[in-house]
Amino acid sequence: MGWGYLMERIIVPTLTQLAIIGTNELLYYRSWEKPEWVVLSGTLIAAALMIGNLGLHLEYILVLPILISLFFFRKRLLYLAFAANLLTFFLMYYGFSEFRAIMTSYDLCIFFAIMIGILYIALQIIGQGKQMIADFMRMVTSEQDLVVKNAVMDRLAKIDALTDLYNHKTLHEYLEQLIEQSNNNVMPLQLAIMDIDNFKSVNDTYGHAVGDAVLSRVAQAVKDSLSQNEIIARYGGEEFVVIFPGKTLFEACQEMERTRELIYSIAHEEMKGNRISVSIGVAEHMTGKSSSALFEEADASLYYAKKHGKNQMVAKQHARKSSSSPV
């Protein structure tokens, strides 16, 4: 085995393949990721192997670029690989007599039949793959839409549309859970009921649209004055309820008094700058008592506040009156 043979059949083809691979790596690290170059690199490597072994039937190694193109799921790349392979084969066939000598007519027919068959199969794989991806994306989109729809429905079931506060049903669900926690962990729990004073006269005088605007503004004032730890709900009509988990009666009273003052400070343009007031009743949950008992105590305090002048907060029959007068 002479030096010429080693150079022609081993060293040159090997160096050619290494150069192609090295160029691929360099382009990859330079962020020049072109799938066309990857496919053509496969063709060049196959050609280098065939040139290094002209006396062997290695023409079927040209299937490699077609298989590589399948990973990209692009028909254009598949056609590129097929065309590059045919061009390479013809260049090898007419450029190297040694390669042409081993290719019989039967070999040529079989080669082209196999290449066309592989092209057809690859096209079917890409088509089926794209269809599966499209079906999967539709399924994912449908599931996402369902999740969003369920979230919206869940929110609509829990939230009052006008005030964006919890509704009556959700309030009782949270209250029952908190009462159970309070009983088990001796956690302080307070409940406040707030009612807008003379709200019927607001609707009668200015209309229900103005009444809705006032309700929405009062709800926002309550949210602004309280922390995120409190549970705020529109209980019905012009009545609001606030649950104070983990806070003492004194702390709850302080926060509700601040809320009352904030609400009374708002001048409503729809009411020609007039203000509205609220009356508030606060009660403390006692271990062993039910939610209805807690509501009854808070409602009794609210009734006392309404009966004795309005625009005030009452807790355990101790009124905290302001000098402000209701509408």
Q: What do these coordinates show?
A:
With 327 residues, the chain is of the alpha+beta class. Helix content is 65%, strand content 11%. The chain has two domains: 3-135, no CATH class; 168-321, Reverse transcriptase/Diguanylate cyclase domain (Alpha-Beta Plaits). The protein has a six-stranded mixed beta sheet with strand order 2-3-1-4-5-6, sandwiched between helices. The longest helix is centred in the middle third of the chain and has 54 residues, at 105-158. It is rod-shaped.
Instruction: Using the 3D structure, state the CATH architecture of the largest domain.
Output: 2-Layer Sandwich
Q: What form results from the Cα inertia axes?
A: rod-shaped
Tell me the strand percentage band: 5-15%
Number of helical segments with 4 or more residues: 11
Derived from helix and strand composition plus strand pairing, the structural class reads: alpha+beta
Assembly state (oligomeric): single chain
Keywords: Membrane, Transmembrane, Transmembrane helix
Transmembrane segments: 37-56, 77-96, 102-123
InterPro entries: Diguanylate_Cyclase (IPR050469), GGDEF_dom (IPR000160), Nucleotide_cyclase (IPR029787), Rev_trsase/Diguanyl_cyclase (IPR043128)
GO molecular function: diguanylate cyclase activity
Key words describing this protein structure:
transmembrane helix, rod-shaped, 2 domains, 11 helices, alpha+beta, Alpha-Beta Plaits
Give a quick summary of the entry.
It contains 11 helices and 6 strands. With 327 residues, the chain is an alpha+beta fold.
